[in-house]
Amino acid sequence: MSRYLFDNLEDLKIFKNDPKTAIVTDIDGTISEIAPTPEKALVTKAMQNMLVKLKEKFSMVAVISGRSALNAREMVGVEGLLYVGNHGMEFLKDGKLSKHPDVEKYIPVIKKTGQKLKNGDISSMKGLIFEDKGICYTIHYRLSNPSDNPREKILKTLHGDPECKKLNISEGRQLVELKPPISCDKGTILHDIIEEYGLEKIIYLGDDITDLDAFDKLKQMQNEGKIRGSSILVLSSEIPSTVKKDSTYFVNGVDEVLKFFQWLFN
After folding, report:
1. Do strands 175-179 and 168-172 pair parallel, antiparallel, or not at all (unpaired)?
2. In terms of CATH, what superfamily is 3-100+185-265?
């Protein structure tokens, strides 16, 4: 079971005092408060300024998000970070965007299926938001009435569509997503970042069930002696309490993430 971060800061001084440390973080629910709609989410000026300072102090600050890489950069608003979008299927570094080589062939069927969903039976359900992210397609149901059972209806519709059998169907906080059937998650992408950049120490922050893969990969690589790492879960009422056991530490919300970043910098 993870421990409360601010009761254990002494354990993290090995990261704080080493410029080789890398910070890897999710966006929504981690460095930005969860918002009713994706476009209303905001990274505050205080958080932006802190990310700039961390980038100057440490070897790397990377952002991994379910958003597209371009949207992630636009939202975070800090140049010089490594932006990883669509759950690791695209990278944006120094203004250059690159995609996983296997995604292109699936984009047409994802767009076609997404459009069919947007115009189909579930579109009559109030509060649904349909988001085409280029590589992935997301249906948000945060604004729907829970009594309408939006999650169950969305999943039933997707699993009943023959086109979806060619794709991956996954879930996040109040959303269901269509993805290319590629073995790519936050764990594999964290592994690739560590290997490519020769990282020695890393702090990973996330808030969702999709971050479990990164927590587990970091733990595995640490046990193998390949990295010194700590994972931090940002708690919320929307994720199962079982997620808590997979991270090293936890904090209570985005404000405490900012507080931790301030401690790291000073």
Report:
1. antiparallel
2. HAD superfamily/HAD-like (3.40.50.1000)
The answer to whether domain 3-100+185-265 and domain 104-179 are alike in fold is no
Q: Rounded to an integer, what distance in angstroms lies between the CA atom of residue 210 and that of residue 114? A: 21
pLDDT digits (tens, 9 = 90+) for 103-161: 999 999 999 999 998 998 898 999 999 999 999 999 999 999 999 999 999 999 999 98
210 φ, ψ (degrees, to nearest 5): -70, -20
Domain ranges for the chain, please list them.
3-100+185-265, 104-179
- The CATH classification number of 104-179 equals 3.30.70.1020
Q: What is the dihedral of CA 46, 47, 53, 58, to 10 degrees?
A: 160
Place of tokens 């109030």: 126
CA-to-CA separations, 91 to 2, 68, 82, 138, 266, in angstroms, rounded: 30, 9, 7, 19, 30
Q: Give the model confidence (pLDDT) of 152-193 as tens digits.
A: 999 999 999 888 888 999 998 899 999 999 988 899 999 999
| Beta strands 90-93 and 82-85, pairing class | antiparallel
